Amino acid sequence: MPVTVVIGSQWGDEGKGKIVDLLSKEVDIVARYQGGANAGHTICWGDKTFVLHLVPSGIFHEGVSCVIGNGVVIDPVAVIDEIRMIKELGYQVEGRLFISHNAHLIMPYHKAVEQVRERYRDADAIGTTGRGIGPAYMDKFARTGIRVVDLLDRDVLSMKLKRAIEEKNQILRSIYGAEELNVDAIIEEYVEFDRLIDPYVIDAPQYLNAALKEGKHILAEGAQGALLDVDFGTYPYVTSSHPTVGGCCTGLGVPPTEINRIIGIVKAYCTRVGNGPFPTELLDETGELLRKTGNEFGATTGRPRRCGWLDLVALRYTSMINGFTELAITKLDVLNGLPSIQVATSYRYDGKETTRFPSEGHTLEKVTPVYETMPGWEADIRTADRFEDLPEVTQEYLQFIASTVGVDITMISTGPKREQTITGERSRVRAVR
Ligand code: IMP
Questions:
Q1: Integer CA distances (angstroms), 11 to 108, 239, 277, 305, 347, in order
Q2: How far does residue 239's CA lie from ligand 1's centre (Å)?
Q3: Residues with Cβ within 8 Å of residue 275, at least 6 apart in sequence
Q4: What value does the mean pLDDT take over residues 321-338?
Q5: CB 127 near ligand 1, within 6 Å
Q6: 51: pLDDT confidence band, cut at 50, 70 and 90?
């Protein structure tokens, strides 16, 4: 059962990129299963920083192949740009990056519709990344979407694009009074993608399952976080796909029986970009401090992220949905120097205390977190090499997380650099159940 799944356990931006990068050297294939160019994975390497939106970060590891699965919505312009950038850095991409022939495409009309729809919703706007993700998934499920394979046949693509743009133009004009898009210009631009994308297109489920049969290891990487899942997240303030573990099977075509590790990535505090309920949000100077110290600005949009304390009610919930087999704690160093740290262990709602995470927004908006206050630490933990090197109170913080969630911690990230990570037996914090 050689599939490891890496899942953001909060609202995204947990630092999955770094963990995926570290695990990539142990696997043969890194495969992305959902989302689109709304995600941004930042990878620090020496003094270089990369942001990848679509191509899995495994591409920087020679000998590793990367797959963009059918569950991802692909902006052809964005993926070709990213491929160009990676090639310019000196990495071989052809023969190592594979794009599922069944993945759906994001077209300019998806972004246009999203923009006007967000404006129209006004105070109720989701606060999307503006990358056309929601409208592309809408077309997928309305069965009017255009897929990667369609890019390879100019006649089919032109016919499908014409039909889709004419429909979207009616929506733009009649519902939103917005400007129409030019059908011919879009067709002219996108027919050119056949030769650009052709070298990468494969039947990904066949490829991945054949690899599994040969005993190869796959690292499946989700984008965003479990609390942005369209079913299990804080609907409607969610993304339009499934970052949760089921998304790995439907987004790649690998059977659940092949999955043996499900790693929940947990940032040592919480952040959220976009709108929607966030019980532990800090609207004071501590929130500001976390944003500044943690550099909490969107990798895709640059928007400042909302910051708050770690929420163990939410984490227990996402662990339940995903069946995390282990946790990786990230950005622990951002808490360095805080006089005390708070962790939400339950919520108070309607006069009662509850440990249930209410994913229905109208309830979540009204809960008050009940906090456990823990002492902070002064020491700079970035050079710690083992769990035992961490200050005692830091160890207690980690132990409290593992035991409350009931899942062991197996990786601890203490800084942005690759080497600032405690892994293996040196990092294991056993959950005391
Ligand atoms: P969309 O995915 O662009 O439709 O945006 C829906 C919601 O998900 C918004 O609140 C976005 O800010 C949020 N979101 C989308 N991608 C990410 C991500 O990679 N990290 C954090 N939040 C995200």
A1: 27, 10, 11, 10, 18
A2: 6
A3: 125, 126, 127, 237
A4: 98
A5: yes
A6: confident
